Amino acid sequence: MGQSSGKIALVTGAGSGIGRAAAWALLDAGYSVVFNGRRRARLEDAASTRDPDGMRSMVFDTDVSDPGGVAAMFAAVRERFGRLDLLFNNAGGAALGSSIDEVSYEDWMRVVNANLTGTFLCTKYAFALMRAQDPQGGRIINNGSISAQVPRPHSAPYTATKHGVAGLTKSTALDGRPYNIACCELDIGNAATDMTRQMAVGMLQADGSTRAEPRMSVDEVARAVVFMDSLPLDTNIPSLTIMATLMPFIGRG
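^ that's the sequence the OP posted. Answer follows.
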């Protein structure tokens, strides 16, 4: 896999889990990386672990569902780096475990804001920057989840937003054609993070049983992100599924 030749990347939710692993892999591949998240201390720790002198990393703590914060973040990227080559929309949240009639409005809006509104806002400002820069163009990778294809029981907010991300990905890819902006989706199944810890204990299945599910290393997801952006901008992978081989997905239900 080739090096980035000094590309600039922004990763949301980069303080832990998939986002941190992807940001580290991009740094290792030669990118300069903007670490975004809500907890500054976590971001600073993640950035300094791979880039102790701070020459190729930048930390910007803001909630991706905050329009003013997102606008300020992309303005800061433009000021420091002058361009953006890759956005990995990774930040998000879940509200699992409730039948749709038991989902509160507050939980619904929390997941919608994190997963869908946040992806939209970051895409909006990244697209504008990529469209205006010289040379024009870039790539946007959205964390879609396999729930964009097949839902789990009791996952209405998460599943609905991930289906929304799939639609946003396709629409962005179409809008980006005249400006050399490629947009794609990475559907991830059972990466080993804090959010998926319960999977190793037991998850409700479509047949009503509860079973533990295999998970995979976040490093494999990070490798997929680097690979997807290693392609020239005239080549795109509209969607790619990466999952723990033995998880109950193919044949789910």
